[in-house]
Amino acid sequence: MLYRVRTTFRDRPGVLAALATVCGDAGINILSFQAFPAHDGVTDELVVSVGAGWTEIGVAQLVTEAGGRQVSVTRCSARSLRDAPTSYLRAAADVLGGRSSLHAALERLLETEAPDVADYAGHDTIELTGTEPLAVSRAVPFTATERARASALADLVAAVGPAPDPPVPAAPRPPAQDPVVRDATAEDADDLAALHTRCSERTLFLRYNAPMTGVIHPRMARRLVAPADGVAVIATTARTVTGHAVAIPTDEDDPTRWELGILVEDVWQRRGLGTALLRHVTWAARRAGAAEVEIVTEPGNDAILRTIGRAGLLARITREGTALRISVALSPDAVPRCASPVR
């Protein structure tokens, strides 16, 4: 098993020797090493090979005991062992040769896949301007060196790269009126069904983690707006439902563990509506007795992770086959602070 370890040490002699000794005594093999100097110390990144029985938490504890601060440990592949300068040069050739977009190249170089970490509180983001504005984000913070490398690659592509593709026509913008988030009722079933018909297949897939046609049975619509044992909220603009969130208990052994789902119409996405729905539904779920909500989605669904971070909630992420299970604790001191009563 390979792990990427990122930690900050005080910049003083002997620190890395001590870390190497601790790893060697524990049977952990350091395969690669990078240093990223910063004003408050040096951030070191190591790729290590561990034997059976080691977990991310165990490796993090070992590095912390060796003097590391701000330790993060994530699973990685042999791709992480590639030489960084060589990888950036090859990425530049791919982008300039039309074999890759700049955005895709940076995602590979900076390994911005959905985080496989124990605790998640929000992404760090690099925003760049070149042939076109773009942003990449990940759970582990970027170092100044990584930001400089990404900026240099973007500048190179902008200076000598091919002309950008014609711009994609902008999606229609929603009306200026702000949506109102409120409790859902059985009378909202038809409007919720209509919302599904306006959502893209991709949006529906991310919501239900399965292919959807956009047409839902009236009985299902009623259960989504008026669940027997859960809570549901909707966002409306005038008389149109533009978003929906529902949380229901699904664990017979633990009635305080609930499953949560959020759906936002495509033209209303990236406007804060998902965050508002999440805040309101978790507030309502907490009042109804939930101590934790879970969301099951695909690893590429960074949008829900950013939404959780913006809502001020802390997520715990685990992998289950090809899916991610995102658990959000609804502690009394967290939920009331980031949510207000549903209107």
Automatic annotation (TrEMBL):
One Pfam family, short name:
Acetyltransf_1
Residue ranges constituting the ACT domain according to the UniProt record: 4-83
Give every N-acetyltransferase domain span: 179-331
InterPro entries hit by this protein: ACT-like_dom_sf, ACT_dom, Acyl_CoA_acyltransferase, GNAT_dom
Sorted keywords for this record are:
Acyltransferase, Transferase
Q: Does the keyword Membrane apply?
A: no
Molecular functions per Gene Ontology: acyltransferase activity, transferring groups other than amino-acyl groups
Protein's name according to its UniProt entry: L-amino acid N-acyltransferase YncA
